[in-house]
Amino acid sequence: MTKAEKENIKKNVSTINKIGSNKFGNSVKKRMENNIKGAVMGGGIGIVLGIATRKNLVISGLIGLIIGRLILVKS
Fold it and tell me: Distance (Å, rounded) from C-alpha 62 to C-alpha 70?
């Protein structure tokens, strides 16, 4: 068994344990909250930058949404 397979099995066992102890729902809820917070903060920053640069607010807001979500998901 390779190291990657062992890591995959550990991850799967951890997920099964979370489901069994009813912590999986809380984990999913926290991830969704982080996604929404990141999108809202990024969208706000995108709109502010759009106003400052006098570009299209919709486009800058959408770009901000995407970037904000990605930043909070990675951290």
Answer: 13
